[in-house]
């Protein structure tokens, strides 16, 4: 694709677009990508954690910080929820730097609400940014990746999607959809040497700060999460964008402080067959009891990741 692998600057010669890069996780990724030699399009619409308002300052400040450190970067304030906006981001990379090699779909919003109180307009807004957004940006970049026979996508999913959480039906559905989108991209574009992977990030960000802490246990968990700085997600992201991981595609990772996990994907746990087929009664009396020992509990991400990070 571009220059050969350099362990000190693993993105030398590459052009990377990072969405939601004005703050938090995206900012850390943009800065580390630039430190490793990438030319960066710093996209951030400048909205609040719930997707309201617009302020181009955060993205411009990150781009300026990269340039002040000797790197190359431009700011972009288009919305990922707009396909035309996604096309403009990609075109800006081409106009400014001549190519595009990597896309990090990091932009997201939260509007927490218990399911029976979830407003349809909040569902639409969260899905538009968190699921349609990654589709828009990935689809806009895909023809260019195909044309140059190479490229890498990294998408941010969530433990709320992979495991579960209260009050996040829309966010969880969107973020689980991102994992299926990533796998589909990996399958469809493997022939063009295009990779697609997901990261489930654990970090203290503006979005996490909007999650209500209604019980002492939840407030204690929030305090623990404050120890997980968003820049800890950047090394895994930059590695997945680089040629050093050129064989890695279709995977879901989690990054939690100094821990990295490979997350599972759905596979059959147990199968049963009954000669002559099944009736509802036989399913309830035979199949369900036989499978019950392998049922998943109604746990949350805090139940599965219940230890303090180090």
Model description:
It comes from Azospirillum oleiclasticum. This protein has a single domain, classed as Rossmann fold, CATH 3.40.50.720. Strands 3-2-1-4-5-6-7-8 form an 8-stranded mixed beta sheet, sandwiched between helices. β2, α2 and β3 (73-76) form a beta-alpha-beta unit. The chain starts with 14 loop residues before the first strand and ends in a 6-residue tail after the last helix. With 310 residues, it is an alpha/beta fold. It has helices at 24-35, 57-68, 83-97, 120-148, 159-162, 169-189, 206-209, 216-225, 234-241, 280-291, 301-304; strands at 15-18, 39-43, 73-76, 102-105, 151-156, 194-202, 252-256, 259-262. The chain has 11 helices and 8 strands.
Question: Gist?
Answer:
With 310 residues, the chain is of the alpha/beta class.
Features of this protein?
310 residues; alpha/beta; Rossmann fold; eight-stranded mixed beta sheet
């Amino acid at each position: 694709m571009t220059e050969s692998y350099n362990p000190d600057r693993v993105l030398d010669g590459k052009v990377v677009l990072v969405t939601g890069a004005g703050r938090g996780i995206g900012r850390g990724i943009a800065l580390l990508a630039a430190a490793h030699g990438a030319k960066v399009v710093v996209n951030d619409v400048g909205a609040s954690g719930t997707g309201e308002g617009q302020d181009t300052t955060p993205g411009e400040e990150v781009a300026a910080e990269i340039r002040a450190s000797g790197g190359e970067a431009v700011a972009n304030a288009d919305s990922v929820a707009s396909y035309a906006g996604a096309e403009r981001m990609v075109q800006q990379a081409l106009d400014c730097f001549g190519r595009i090699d990597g896309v990090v779909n990091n932009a997201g919003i939260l509007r927490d609400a218990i399911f029976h109180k979830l407003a349809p307009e909040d569902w639409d807004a969260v899905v538009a940014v968190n699921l349609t957004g990654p589709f828009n940006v990935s689809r806009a970049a895909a023809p260019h990746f195909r044309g140059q026979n190479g490229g890498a996508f990294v998408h941010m999913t969530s433990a709320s999607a992979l495991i579960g959480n209260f009050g996040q039906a829309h966010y969880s559905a969107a973020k689980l959809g991102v994992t299926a989108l990533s796998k589909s991209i990996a399958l469809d574009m493997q022939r063009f040497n295009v990779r697609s992977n997901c990261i489930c990030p654990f970090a203290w960000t503006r979005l996490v700060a909007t999650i209500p802490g209604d019980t002492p246990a939840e407030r204690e968990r929030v305090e623990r999460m404050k120890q997980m700085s968003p820049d800890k997600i950047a090394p895994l992201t930059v590695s997945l964008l680089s040629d050093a991981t050129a064989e890695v595609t279709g995977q879901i990772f989690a990054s939690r402080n100094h821990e990295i996990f490979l997350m599972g994907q759905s596979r059959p746990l147990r199968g049963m067959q009954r000669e002559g087929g099944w009736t509802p009664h036989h399913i309830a009396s035979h199949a369900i009891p036989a499978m019950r020992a392998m049922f998943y509990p109604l746990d949350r991400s805090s139940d599965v990741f219940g230890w303090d990070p180090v």
